Amino acid sequence: MSSLRDRQIACIKRMLALDAADAQQVTPGVWKVLVFDALGQDVISSVLRVSDLREAGVTVHMQLKADRQPIGDVPAVYFVEPTQENVDRIVADLAKGLYEAAFLNFSSSISRPLLEDLASKTAQAETAGNISKVVDQHLNFVVTEPDLFSLGMRDVFYKLNAPAVPEAQIQSDIDRIVSGLFSVILTLDNIPIIRCPSGNAAEMIASKLDARLRDHIINTRQTAGTRPAQQAYQRPVLVILDRTMDLVSMLSHSWTYQALVHDLCDLHLNRITLPAEDSAKARKAYDLDPSDFFWQSNANTVFPSVAENLQAELDRYTREKAELTRTTGVTEIEDLDPLNAGTTIHLQAALKALPEMQARKQTLDMHMTIATALLKGVQERQIDKFVESEETIARMQKTTLLAALRDTQRKPEDRMRLLMIYYLSQEEVKKPDLAEYEAALTEAGCDLKPLHALKKLRDLTRMSVPAVSAAAPAVPAQQRGADQLFRGFSSLSSKFGERLQQAGISDNFNNLISGVKNFLPSSSNLTITRIVESLMEPSTGASSYTGQAKSLTDSYLYFDPRQRQQPVTKPAKPQTFGEAVVFTVGGGNYVEYGNLLDWCGRQEQAGRGKRVIYGSTAILKPGQFVDDLGRIMGQ
Hints:
49% of the residues lie in helices and 11% in strands. It has 635 residues and is of the alpha/beta class. α24 links the parallel β14 (579-585) and β15 (611-616). The protein starts with a helix and ends with a helix.
């Protein structure tokens, strides 16, 4: 089953092949220039490397806004948003004769007035003949994981909840979200059934998307993508949710590799930027390759297991390296000489294995550096204590919470997040108690605007208290042996003591381990996962939370773009789905993505194969979401 990333890559390669039906059919030796805008660059750079572009015949890639010199003997592939500014720049390029021909690819549908403007201006300049194709590619979404996508819309939660944002601006964002989801659906090539709660932005988006899909079906004279008519259970369900359905997951501290990297470092468009070691040194940055074997298998793994798996991979590399040097007689595998490759079978085998081993070692070294930086961040911010506290937040005593909020060893922003999670986890917090908690944060130098915004949002939306702790990420059962989990930390300390010492954490390493090794997060379904379970598997009794989620989704609206009737509250009979696309309006996070993956894994083990694609307007760090809350209250 092709992932969303695989499908997007195929679409991009087809575009670079000048939109040939098969990317392999393009005439060999046709070199081209790639010109993109900011969104186009984000889309392509998240899934393809420079070497991939070269394989597709791209000799050079440039920003549309940059000053570019003429390259008159090659065609140009444009990949840009359909805006007036971009169209005007393309018209100017054609007038200058920068390229032999122009293949215009718009990331979303170009409007008729804008298309007519392009035709009119190029006709007047007598350059229309230089345009070889104009194609709506429907690729205005960024894929950073096999089944995770973002629309790159950073401020949606703020705009939907801040009173001073003009209605026209909100409607513009709604239309942009609809366009992005429409593109995802076309890329998946399967028209979904749409479910959403009534009211708020989710319903507006679902209704507009339903209408657009109906028009698409009529215009293309088909009933389900380009596929033949299918039964309902073969179609996916698209679940559109307002962010206010669960704010805890946006604020919680996580214990999985990917979520920790996102929280403690900068993870954006598959580039990890580590915190600066000191002000005099530049920050280290690493690009996550789609073929990164270690990230693929460990991104959603609890961090101590990541350390152990990293050590196991390094040990395997050491053993294979020792075997190669023993059979070839060289001291280091880097000393192997390709000119002598024909001398022995052993040398031939060693030289064949050398590139893969060197690439694997480079990947492992990168993750070793990242893991070391995470360890330092865990220690400095006491992440383990926050994860443990949030695991049982609903039962936390007042004295315990006050002690945590007054702990000067913890960063103020982390303490703020802890109180916000506590507030969301209680049916009611007594005013005198809340005043004490706020005083503790004020003393720590915290701005209370985010907390006040949270209180208003809860009053307005009447957000329900989560039935279970939503702060802790789900942890597969096979990862829960304490000795195995934390042996990884110990081996990390002994094997790479020099790196840990350079990072300034080796002296306190044993104290750090002793503080976390007795704690493992529980395996629990987050709110979003319980909603998805109730919609994909309505008859299952496997989850103790299904009944609660059913009551939450019973009133969800039901849209079927293939049917003529208007949306109804629920289908005539319960439907089971094998695939789902889940989209949150106002921000998403890696905690929810990982939780959904874990649920799919458990379903697979139970013989119910499920696949969930997770998307959002933007993937936000907890700190970014807290900032958005503060901006709302600042209005």
